[in-house]
């Protein structure tokens, strides 16, 4: 679910999925390929990242790295997936792999 939390930096549109029923459609009207009954093809504008979107991993990582550096973590200069924080309480290391943190 991590990729769903990224913020899009550009405008992205997508074709409506097959079987979509929603706002702007008459009840029971079904999407069939590129034609919705006699209406022209419809698309939707994405407000957030979705699975399968090319930008999703990058946008999630940008949001995560910003949040960690705001909390005082330092990003390694040799391994960008490693974030560390040292204070009087001890040392914390966070290693990010795709959408998992260890």
TrEMBL record:
Residues 1-101 form the Reverse transcriptase Ty1/copia-type domain. Keywords: Nucleotidyltransferase, RNA-directed DNA polymerase, Transferase. GO terms for molecular function: RNA-directed DNA polymerase activity. InterPro entries: RVT_2. This is Reverse transcriptase.
């Amino acid at each position: 679910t991590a990729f769903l939390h990224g913020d899009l930096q550009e405008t992205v549109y997508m074709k409506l999925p097959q079987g979509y029923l929603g706002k702007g459609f008459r009840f029971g009207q079904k999407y069939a390929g590129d034609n919705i009954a006699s209406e022209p093809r419809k698309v939707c504008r994405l407000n957030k990242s979705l699975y399968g979107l090319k930008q999703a991993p990058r946008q999630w990582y940008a949001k995560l790295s910003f949040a960690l550096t705001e909390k005082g973590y330092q990003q390694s200069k040799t391994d960008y997936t490693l974030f560390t924080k040292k204070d009087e309480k001890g040392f914390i290391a966070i290693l990010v792999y795709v959408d998992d943190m260890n």
